[in-house]
Automatic annotation (TrEMBL):
Gene3D superfamilies assigned: 1.10.8.60
Entry-linked InterPro entries: RuvB-like, RuvB-like_C
Domain RuvB-like AAA-lid: 1-54
Keyword Electron transport: no
Record protein name field: RuvB-like helicase
EC numbers on record: 3.6.4.12
Domain of life: Eukaryota
GO function term, MF aspect, one: ATP binding
Catalytic activity: ATP + H2O = ADP + phosphate + H(+)
UniProt entry tagged with the keyword ATP-binding: yes
Amino acid sequence: MADDAKELLTKVGFETSLRYAIQLITAAHIVCQRRKGTEVEIEDIGRVYSMFVDVKRSTQFLMEYQEQYMFNEVLADPEPMQTTS
């Protein structure tokens, strides 16, 4: 693994989670193999970082686009439950 790729993974691990950074290592290695590379480069890390989101970015995405999801219509106009006595 290239030194700058290690530094980027360290930054990603610090800002997100160690688990996420470790999972990126495996995915970046596969991307490296697909391009017939010999070591994981910073571009490989960047590619998998854009493909797989961490919890924080996933939550941001859901909050940003929540009005476009089907469940939002159900929660926006709840019908009161009618009870029969």
